[in-house]
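Sample intake sheet
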Amino acid sequence: MRKHLLTILLVLTSSMLFGQIVSLTSSKPVRMVRPESGYSVFVKAYVENAIDEWQRKQPGESNARYKNRVSESHKQEMIVLLEAEASDKYLEEISRTYVLDLNIDGYDRNNEQMIMSENYFGRLSVKVPVVKSDYFISSWSDMVLKPDYFIYKDTLGLARVDFMLPDGSRFQYINKVILDSMYMGVPYMLSPVYIFGERVRNGVDEKNHNIDKDIPVIDSVNKNTWVVIIANENYRKEPKVKFAKNDAETFKNYCIKTLCVPKRNLKYIQNATLKDFETIIKWMSGVSKQYGEDTKFIVYYVGHGISSSRNRKSYFVPVEGRFSKIKTCFSVDYFLENMSAMPVKSAVLFVDASFNCYNRKGSLLVDDITSGIKSKTKVLNGNVVACFAAQGNETAFQYEDKKHGVFTYFLLKEIQNNPSNLTLGGLFYEVQSKVKTYSLSEFKKTQTPSVIYSSKLTDKWKDIKLR
């Protein structure tokens, strides 16, 4: 399943970034290496073969389109995506070559551990209560074993084994090495891979400027734009959203210095309550009525989100809100409906939040049915566009080194790199590409920023300017 998702993502990314779908499958036989040669050798061959084919000029492709498609930054993004696909292929191929051969060596009654050995993976132990130990041993020949593997350094590693006994009881071995590195059920601990002689993991191409300090200053006044910033970091009854305040503070500085929004046009709220959300809507409505159809809104939210298992709707979580009590949260649909009713030139909402009960590190916050819900958002009206950090039940991760959310970091990074070209379409697609590439590279899990817009706007949403 994961392999198919990555393949689909790769095709969609190549279409979106490069203007057309370019086949990554060679028309001639491609030299592949055996997985037993090692992960790094296998991936190097896989990626280099695919890149060689990708960078061929396609029939009917203009020189300008070709030059843009195979730019160095696009090449680095494609390498990271291909490496992720190659990792899945390697794991699939190498695991086929191995049959788990476990033997029971004995039982440690003091620690209630069944001690076993395996020819390749060595000794391992499984927690088995004393009352079940004899039955575990006597049922060995009838037991069903279900192993899961992962890539450990440069070869195959044993991630876990499920032991299913005839009476329905179940025990599990989990490799301690990967307890903190498990994403989508397939953890990775990889050795560096050098493609074309260069290390590529975490190789998102970007100018090396600090987004918090090196903020472009534009000498202008954007008097018709009004900004709302909501930063929910310190929750009263739910876990903290790390870096939320830093995200919002830096976003505010970009609004003032780069987007040229007057300070009086900016409403900034830290740790917003349910009542604050209602107040924000009333304030925006008042502004739109007073200043007329030339008004433009930019709204930014960072904090927790949640999806309802009952109606599959998304909600912002106020600081006093609870994941388990939807009535304490604020409907995203309701927020957007009110924005849609405002007679304004444009209203853009940026949301750096997950709606799947996971934190920014990818850890589940609550063991609840809502964690698997894929939420829906209504079709918008008016001149409204909403940009979300992740799709459905994906996680909006954090960029630990930069002390920001991944989505916010690349959003501000793109504004920093291209302050003179701030159309929403150009900005969003660049951010989407960088976020997807980084999340796959760093977390081995997809985070795909998404955009919804009103039927009235159609493709005109791409031309909306932030300044």
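Comment: The radius of gyration is 25 Å. The longest strand covers residues 144-153.
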